[in-house]
Fold this sequence. Notes:
Blueprint: H1 15-28, H2 30-49, H3 54-58, H4 62-96, H5 105-112, H6 116-138, H7 141-166, H8 170-183, H9 185-210, H10 215-223, H11 228-235, H12 238-251, H13 254-278
Amino acid sequence: xxxxxxxxxxxxxxxxxxxxxxxxxxxxxxxxxxxxxxxxxxxxxxxxxxxxxxxxxxxxxxxxxxxxxxxxxxxxxxxxxxxxxxxxxxxxxxxxxxxxxxxxxxxxxxxxxxxxxxxxxxxxxxxxxxxxxxxxxxxxxxxxxxxxxxxxxxxxxxxxxxxxxxxxxxxxxxxxxxxxxxxxxxxxxxxxxxxxxxxxxxxxxxxxxxxxxxxxxxxxxxxxxxxxxxxxxxxxxxxxxxxxxxxxxxxxxxxxxxxxxxxxxxxxxxxxxxxxxxxxxxxxxxxxxxxxxxxxxxxxxxxxxxx
Length: 307
């Protein structure tokens, strides 16, 4: 763990320092993060555009619609796998690039692959457990469901940093992730809530910006719903794909940076507690016998009664 102490995000944070560190790290590494994220987003956006959603919009028969949705399961799963793979690479880059400037995106991408399968397995387990938590949260109405989503999101943010820094052992990663997420539970939950709100606001603003060139089609769709397929076709156009990729490239690095901050904050808190414990061992405590003068031998040079 000693090498990670030199990471720019490694420290014990409060909410202000966490957001400041996120912004400073983002600014300092903006060019490289943007280029990597843009390439990733462009691939994902293009793959998504290949899935034909026009058929769903033009279908009114529920059974036919269900059949078409089943045909889309495989392409959607493939896109999800690509997305998870890119998330895995980007998180590894953010964790390890600052520790050695000689690392490049190719070598880091190859090294990150050893964590992909454990990450994928944990994501499946987390999706299953998260679905149950959200379902149970619905019994407590909106507040319960929102808290369940927030809790699952907080757990998720710790997964990749734990795997990549403490080893791709699933049996160790799952309890370790839960332990770190629960260590500063309310702080982690609160920071995650603030981060999600910020991301939602940023996404709404950027989405509104990239939709400006397509405002006419959007208004036509509202006034004439039967022409809605035109809007779907526009979202598959090269201009929309490029603009969406730019927006994704601007926001994509924020989550892995924030995940790193949460993890390093938990580790720094642990390290600090260990230092406090180690600096106060039992043998350093004052004992009753220390309050009395120690007897000296008759010939001891410090014996005040020595003749």
